[in-house]
């Protein structure tokens, strides 16, 4: 059955059921029908009270079942896919960057790679790499590298890779970046300013096919 027809059918059935319940309650009220009542009608239990009691009982039952399900041990999940989390940074607020990295550090996904690419390699950008090493475990756990250029620039004053091709030095630096990103769980690369797209390209290019998914 198409989803549109199913939606219309659900609306019609729900509306009819509500109309039947309302008509029944009104009829019981008009006729004065009561299941139980005292002699002076100080206390009575009619159809409306029965519906309310049933509604309260069902709510309590479903709440109990949901609470029981939430408290039961979670089924073990077999996560066989590898994931890399890429963070682009450009003159970030130190407190916000530190909070971001601390939040990332608490992620429990097994084997998660974290790649921070800083858009800028000037001395005043160094604080972002320092924060990364501080939060992610220092030089022992978090590898870092300052790249004079980026994948589309050799870091020269002219910008871009001259001579219609890539110099050996530029290719070696690009290979170092790839080895760092693929060989460490946490890695940080400071590169020549090139905008957010250049930062994202560096993360994607360095990771290559070493992971299944990139976030």
UniProtKB/TrEMBL annotation:
Record GO terms (molecular function): hyaluronan synthase activity
UniProt record, GO biological process: extracellular matrix assembly; hyaluronan biosynthetic process
Alphabetically ordered keywords of this record: Membrane, Transmembrane, Transmembrane helix
Lineage per the UniProt record: Eukaryota, Metazoa, Chordata, Craniata, Vertebrata
Transmembrane annotation, as ranges: 7-30, 45-65
CC annotations in GO: plasma membrane
Subcellular location: Membrane
Signal peptide residues on this chain, from the entry's feature table: none
Annotated protein name in UniProt: Hyaluronan synthase 3
Species this protein is from: Solea senegalensis (Senegalese sole)
Principal subcellular localisation of the protein: membrane
Superkingdom: Eukaryota
Keyword Iron set for record: no
